[in-house]
Design brief:
456 residues; alpha/beta; FAD/NAD(P)-binding domain; Enolase-like, domain 1; 3 domains; 5-stranded antiparallel β-sheet; 23 strands; 30% helix; globular
């Protein structure tokens, strides 16, 4: 039996953040066990954020090389997709080595265990038949793809294994309409696939307001992506989808119908840990129903599932184990979808404000009012800024090029309870797409159609 001060179940963002932070605070004197299976680094670096954004950026490059946006520029592009995917996977390996494998070697107080942990009681787990006890535990096992119950669904890709594909599908079906589905649809559409999105709901990207998603859906349609939403898939035979009003045959199918907590097989009941279908139940300090056990990241029952949130929560757990009493306001966390244009959000949506009976004001401008968006020839977008009656910013949503890069401005506004007057009184670089936030702020006090582009 091995005894530790802290045992961490998981090897991803929350696990590493917790291990590094508590090691920093104790000058590497705390003894830590990190238990997990699969490649070190978890989903983000291996099958999530890193490879997906590499795929998206490369697909944009290919699309732009095939068709110039500007008159007088002639372009031509071809692709060796097999070679490209090998390069993508090599990039992932490099990032995993640099950001995780090399990093953990700096902490001699951390012991790595490869295997699946199971709780045997409130203070111990087993891994590979070895018993590990600890004063505190952190469960940071992340999430996995939800596989829908569809008859005949047995030959498909998910966001975990799409990185093995070596041929561009001529016709591609994507089940789901969330962030993963939209990003993969956009990327493969750029590569030349005829992409079809299927979903039971009529909506896409349910975390955004309807006017944002309606605008994005129109843009993606113009990009060639076809939507079959509000339909049920009854059966799949040899990659032919039979749905409510017809059937279609595809070369490949990607399942992207959502994520569920990866907590199967942990035997949480033996440790007195409460959970539900959405994840492990925690208090505001991320403590579970077992006072010595914490949970962080995608395995937790919470509104957002983000790598950045997992990392922040891991750090918070480390500090709370040492008595800090930290909490997180999840409304201060930004998130984005990396199609083109980007979609990004922080704070309350208009729908949320309305459902909570918050008295609010909202301003919405079209991105075509932003000079840089017109220069980029990417002006099919909108920006929304929501304030309370006193002008304090409650939320920002952006559909625009580079929105993921400048949504941080919305974070500062929401987190520090700044007002639209603060936006107006802050100069922005011209021309930038980020200037759209300034223009949206100005729209609270004037008609921007009667405003010159350099109006302060």
């Amino acid at each position: 039996m091995s005894k530790y001060d802290l045992a961490i179940i998981g090897k991803g963002a929350a696990a590493f953040s917790a291990a590094i932070r508590i090691s920093e605070l104790t000058s590497n004197q705390i003894k830590i066990a990190m238990i997990g299976y699969g490649p070190i680094g978890g989903a983000c670096v291996n099958v999530g954020c890193v490879p997906s954004k590499y795929l998206i950026e490369a697909s944009k490059n290919f699309e732009m090389a095939k068709k110039s946006l500007y008159e007088g520029i002639n372009v031509y592009a071809s692709i060796d997709f097999n070679k490209f995917m090998e390069a993508l996977n090599n990039f992932v390996v490099t990032e995993r080595i640099e950001k995780y494998e090399k990093v953990i070697k700096n902490f001699h107080n951390i012991d790595l265990y490869e295997g699946k942990a199971k709780f045997v009681d409130k203070n111990a787990v087993t891994v590979n038949k070895q018993k590990i006890t600890a004063f505190n535990f952190l469960i940071a096992t992340g999430s996995k793809t939800l596989i829908p119950d569809v008859k005949g669904l047995n030959n498909y890709y998910t966001s975990e294994n799409i990185w093995n594909i070596r041929k561009i599908p001529e016709k591609l079906a994507i089940l789901g309409s969330g962030e993963v589905a939209v990003e993969l649809a956009y990327a493969f559409s750029n590569f030349g696939s005829k992409v079809y999105i299927f979903n039971r709901s009529d909506r896409i990207l349910k975390g955004f307001d309807d006017d944002i998603t309606k605008n994005l859906r129109k843009t993606l349609k113009n990009h060639g992506i076809k939507f079959h939403t509000g339909v049920n898939i009854n059966e799949i035979k040899d990659k032919t989808l039979f749905y409510d009003n017809g059937s279609l045959n595809f070369d490949e199918i990607i399942v992207a119908t959502g994520r569920i907590p990866n907590i199967d097989g942990l035997d949480l009941d033996r440790a007195g840990i409460k959970f539900n279908d959405r994840g492990i139940i925690v208090d505001k300090y991320l403590k579970t129903s077992n006072e010595n056990i914490y949970a962080a990241g995608d395995c937790v029952d919470q509104e957002l599932k983000l790598e950045t949130l997992a990392g922040k929560e891991g750090t918070m757990v480390a500090e709370n184990i040492l008595g800090s009493g930290r909490t997180i306001n999840i409304k201060n966390m930004p998130w984005a979808v990396f199609c083109e244009p980007n979609v990004a959000s922080v704070g309350y949506t208009e729908k949320e404000a309305k459902s909570m009976d918050i008295k609010y004001n909202v301003r919405k401008i079209e991105i075509k009012n932003v000079v840089k968006a017109n220069i980029l020839k990417s002006n099919d977008g909108i920006i929304k800024v929501i304030s309370d009656e006193k002008g304090i910013i409650l939320g920002v949503q952006v559909l625009a090029s580079n929105a993921a890069e400048f949504i941080i401005e919305g974070v500062y506004l929401v987190q520090n309870r700044l007002t639209y007057s603060d936006i107006i009184n802050s100069s922005h670089v011209f021309p930038t797409v980020a200037e759209s936030i300034k223009i949206a702020g100005q729209s609270f006090i004037r008609d921007i159609s009667k405003m010159s582009c350099c109006m302060e």
